[in-house]
Amino acid sequence: MKYILVTGGVISGIGKGIIASSIGTILKSCGLRVTAIKIDPYINIDAGTFSPYEHGEVFVLNDGGEVDLDLGNYERFLDINLYKDNNITTGKIYQHVINKERHGDYLGKTVQVVPHITDAVQEWVMNQAKVPVDDDKKEPQICVIELGGTIGDIEGMPFVEAFRQFQFKAKRENFCNIHVSLVPQPNATGEQKTKPTQNSVRALRGLGLSPDLIVCRSAKPIEMAVKEKISMFCHVEPEQVIFIHDVSSTYRVPILLEEQGIIKYFKQRLNLPIDDQPSDLLMKWKKMACRYERLLKVCSIALVGKYTKLSDCYASVFKALEHSALAINYKLDLMYIDSTELERSTEAENSVRYHQAWHKLCKADGILVPGGFGIRGTEGKLQAISWARTKKKPFLGVCLGMQLAVVEFARNCLNWEDANSTEFDPDTKNPVVIDMPEHNPGDMGGTMRLGKRRTVFKTENSVLRKLYGDEMFVEERHRHRYEVNPELTHCFEEKGLKFVGHDTEGSRMEIIELENHPYFVGVQFHPEFSSRPMKPSPPYLGLLLAATGTLNAYLQRGCKLSP
């Protein structure tokens, strides 16, 4: 097993996740089996209880793990399926060690950060690195490990110490450290500054790790003199300094790394049994990146949500839309609309913001209402759904978006004026969305319906079934506490809102479709989590096809994309 540790310096959010994913993609293109582990030094057990404004979206895995969004990057880039134990947190490690101490495994010894916590980290990494993540179920050959945060953070120290020890346990030919740093360019001088990188590498060395590669992030391409300066002051060869400037799309990052000789370096440094040239997989990435940059036709989608101030809150939704747009040769114009700004209360408080939000919604080619929790902004989402339904705008509702589509239909088509979800109004006379039987309102963490579940189509006359290739069932990932009330579904079906998919028992409603509408679809699951750059998610693809007016032609061709 070969281990590649990716650390970061100067600032967090520098792009370690994309760089780790890109390195994995390059090695996979050379015919190697690659897995990935993300280490988050926070004390939370997992990411499940975070607000999206803390660390971005919560990504859900097949096994129900609620994890950091970087695991989403690994899955999309490498086309693999990870597990909850591929995300290590301080909370998980300490819980594991404390449980062992309570069990008496340490035989009366004093339990300390060194060696007990550091040993637990190393043991976890070695065990998880062996777990198959590809469809062929073979053991991986390379494990890419990303250490979250920045070097010098107090909460990350036990992990740095663990890897300082681990480099000797694994041996030099099996362990490689990549340090990602920032090269800022102040507007005042326009000069690219190397001092932050020098200080960051010095701090890393002081903690016992020496970088084999220094990946320098910058806004613009870095000059050769800067590369030579970093090489000299950071005690590495010039070819060990890699530049990654801001690019038009993340699809370009693996190509930038490959162009700077990273395959040849890894082959020598880790004694890898590979050729110097990448295979067809990286050529596909190159073609995809070139195609992305040449797109001329634009499709605009309005994303109506409540976490619109930070794009990472809907990272997988954005990627799923982007994959679908690229598949049909359109450039995506994603317009984020804060759902509260569509509400009447905003018109009274700030009429300009209210009219701007509605202007965005009206000019969009399609409307998407993603998942979420809590009552804030729900009235605005209901307004957007009503607009999509009455104006026959292509619409996709995901999780809460589907539930609110049912609420909107009940209020405006069934005339149940107080129809609501018990999440927002526990005393409503028409509870069209209710608690799941297994929902425990006590603990918040890990109490939802999570992970990959089967959805069975109950009719052949379904747009989504056709988009999925006319399969009898699909398996997608879930993350929800509430569901459509199954006792009331017949009322909706009589009026044209069809529940075309349900769970294997037939009691949970999974997919809705509205009759006599170009595309009005709601799904209880989260299809964005399984979207891949070369395998777009069918519900999102359907939205883009309908928004560009090409859905019927696509269905008539037997769900084949035009060349």
Task: Give an overview of the whole structure.
This protein has 563 residues and is α/β, with parallel strands linked by helices. The protein has two domains: 2-290, Rossmann fold (3-Layer(aba) Sandwich), CATH 3.40.50.300; 295-557, Rossmann fold, CATH 3.40.50. The strands form four sheets. A nine-stranded mixed beta sheet has the order 11-10-12-13-21-20-19-16-17, sandwiched between helices. The longest helix has 17 residues, at 113-129. The radius of gyration is 25 Å and the shape is globular. It starts with a strand and ends in a 7-residue tail after the last helix. InterPro entries: Class_I_gatase-like, CTP_synthase, CTP_synthase_N, GATASE, GATase1_CTP_Synthase, P-loop_NTPase.
